[in-house]
Write a structure and sequence with these properties.
By secondary structure, the chain is of the alpha+beta class. The chain contains 21 helices and 21 strands. The strands form 5 sheets. It has a 7-stranded antiparallel beta sheet with strand order 1-20-19-15-14-9-8, sandwiched between helices. The protein has a 7-stranded antiparallel beta sheet with strand order 7-4-3-11-10-2-21, covered by helices on one side. A 3-stranded mixed beta sheet has the order 16-17-18.
Length: 605
């Protein structure tokens, strides 16, 4: 597929929450003009802007190229499963489902059917942009004070995240089933065959999985997971060893045959309830009814013009879309292309925008079914222009306060603090029909709750709620736990469109609360600095979450520390857990980039 083969502007589509109609193209283009476009795009990244990145990378990183279809996923076996579906005539949704089922098997530390996900889908024929919410929900037994100890203080986060209490009702399968019913081209049951076959025959343990198994004491002590991941003498199973999972094969067989209802009801649901309720640590009050009543949802996508493009992401309960777009919206006022990727000033400007955006995020964004989220006001171009006036070239202003979006903006609750997990994965797909998927899935922490049921790991996603339900003075915290509520997330699956409405980029990353910084960096690197997608993914990570500037250790960014500190930044080096996987569409075809910090690959024809 090339960019010229897509047909993105429909006349009508009732089910979509966003679409590019023919009648609206003039309005879209006018918005792009109003968004302060500062340069023209000539057909993709790869210009001279980032040659100095070779100083920190081996050789000159080049993307994988294809002309028809492509998938980029966090493990080679998962990418192969997705490519197989594309070769059989499947669409982007089909490939994404097949790949994610394999990911749940081969990187169980990151995602799986015991967790949740967000998915962005673009339908080329109709122009529809759909955002699917498969985020976990709190069971009916949850309450705002569930993470407090006997003295009313927040419990130790590590201790509270193990066992049953932090397990949210999984939503991945319900979400994928909803998306498949609307956009799938292949039969549902066929999408599970690669994962079922691998689970039965076994797969070689990767270097990364072996390292994570060996480093997890809690996993060894888990009654079921310990037997699966460790040998009889207590030693961890090693890299290259064949790992079979017949229990997961059986579970996936049933879901393939009967649909997601087989997971949310019957014996599988009962096994989940038994596991969390009988957990040795922090038993949960989750009931079978909690699983049976779970519903995936379609949410309004959040979109914002950025220079010559339209960038669309996931709305609440994820903060990823809005916060990423806020940073980009503030950066409209600065010429990042001129500054380039080797400029301390560019890092400074993006970091200051990040601090402002995270201040708004913590004040305003949570599950929209429980709190009023002023999404439109937060993304209003005039509001973002005013917020950007608080960014001073050469001077960092420290801790930022939330703004007042909208004429009658108010802080509905206190902000509170959360500490999201890092166990997540992302995959991107563009098919031969021009459809695109950006899917980010998660178990929360590495190996989630450490509880294993019927071959899959259960998440501990409820730790994404604020442990403090009330702030000083008694104000309720916006992201407090409540029955049926979805915890706030930073996952940011993102799609980018050009001025003609054609999809030109699909991107996303794991990394907990740092996801927003990773995705923003990759977007700016590709769109402003014209780096090819592989170089944009590999570029050093940096971000501010309104608590100091984080820069990636061992990269050229370390040379900028004196200059950044002189500007007033409190610089904190860190080792990122990014796993950016992206696709860029150029006039000559598809280019894919997989993050070298993990073990993903890009495959296509």
């Amino acid at each position: 597929m090339t960019a010229t083969r897509t047909t993105p502007f429909p006349r009508r589509r009732r089910r979509s929450l966003w679409r590019f109609p023919w009648a609206g193209i003039a309005a879209v283009l006018s918005l792009l003009v109003l968004a302060a476009c500062q340069h023209d795009w000539s057909g993709g990244p790869g210009g001279p802007g980032g040659l100095t990145l070779s100083e920190i990378l081996e050789g000159t990183p080049q993307p994988v190229r294809a002309s028809k279809h492509m998938i980029v996923a966090g493990h080679p076996l998962a990418a192969e499963a997705g490519l197989d579906m594309l070769r059989k005539g499947g669409g982007a949704i089909d490939a994404a489902i097949a790949a994610e089922m394999v990911l749940g098997l081969v990187e169980p530390q990151s995602s799986g059917i015991g967790g949740g996900a967000f998915l962005m889908h673009y339908a080329a024929k109709s122009g529809a942009i759909d955002a699917y919410d498969g985020r976990e929900t709190a069971p009916k037994s949850a309450n705002p004070y569930m993470f407090l100890d006997g003295t009313g203080k927040p419990r130790d986060r590590r201790e509270a995240g193990l066992g049953g209490m932090a397990v949210g009702v999984p939503g991945l399968l319900r979400m994928l089933e909803m998306a498949h019913k609307e956009h799938g081209r292949l039969a549902w049951r066929d999408l599970f065959k690669p994962a079922i076959d691998l689970a039965g025959k076994g797969f070689p343990i990767s270097k990364r999985l072996a390292r994570l198994i060996a480093g997890s004491k809690d996993l060894r002590e888990s009654p079921v997971a310990g037997v699966y991941f460790f040998n009889n003498d207590g030693t961890p199973k090693a890299e290259g060893e064949l790992l079979r999972n017949p229990d997961l094969a059986d579970t996936l067989e049933r879901v393939a045959r009967e649909g997601a209802g087989a997971f949310h009801g019957g014996d599988i649901a009962k096994a989940i309830v038994k596991a969390v309720g009988g957990a040795l640590r922090n038993p949960s009050g989750m009931k079978a009814k909690d699983l049976e009543s779970y519903k995936a949802k379609k949410r309004p996508p959040v979109c914002l013009p950025y220079r010559a493009w339209l960038v669309c992401g996931m709305g609440p309960p994820s903060s990823g879309g809005i916060t990423t777009l806020q940073i980009l919206g503030m950066m409209q006022n600065f010429d990042l292309a001129v500054l380039g990727p080797d400029s301390p000033e560019a890092v400074h400007l993006i970091a200051e925008a990040g601090a402002l955006a995270f201040a708004d995020r913590n004040a305003y964004i949570a599950d929209p079914d429980f709190v009023r989220v002023p999404a439109a006001a937060l993304l209003d171009p005039e509001y973002l222009r005013l917020r950007a006036t608080g960014i001073t070239p050469g001077t960092a202003w420290g801790k930022r306060q939330p703004g007042m979006p909208g004429k009658s903006a108010w802080l509905p609750m206190a902000t509170g603090e959360t500490n999201e997990g890092f166990s997540t994965t992302h995959l991107s797909v563009i098919d031969a029909y021009g459809n695109a998927v950006a899917l980010t899935a998660s178990n929360a922490w590495t190996f989630g709750s450490r509880l294993m049921v019927r071959g899959f790991i259960l998440n501990n996603q409820l730790t994404d709620f604020s442990f403090r339900p009330n702030a000083k003075g008694g104000a309720r915290v916006i992201n407090r736990a409540m029955p049926g509520k979805r915890p706030r997330s930073s996952m940011a699956p993102t799609l980018v469109f050009d001025g003609r409405g054609r999809v030109v980029m699909a991107i996303g990353s794991p990394g907990g609360p740092f996801i927003i910084g990773y995705v923003t960096k990759a977007l700016i690197a590709a769109l402003d600095w014209k780096l090819n997608i592989q170089r944009a993914v590999d570029a050093p990570n940096f971000l501010s979450r309104n608590e100091g500037l984080r820069i990636e250790e061992g990269t050229r960014l370390e040379r900028m520390v004196p200059a950044l500190e002189k500007m007033g930044h409190e610089v904190k080096p860190f080792n990122p857990a990014s796993g950016l996987n992206g696709i860029f569409v150029t006039e000559s075809g598809l280019e894919g980039g997989a993050d070298k910090r993990r073990e993903g690959v890009a495959l296509g024809d």
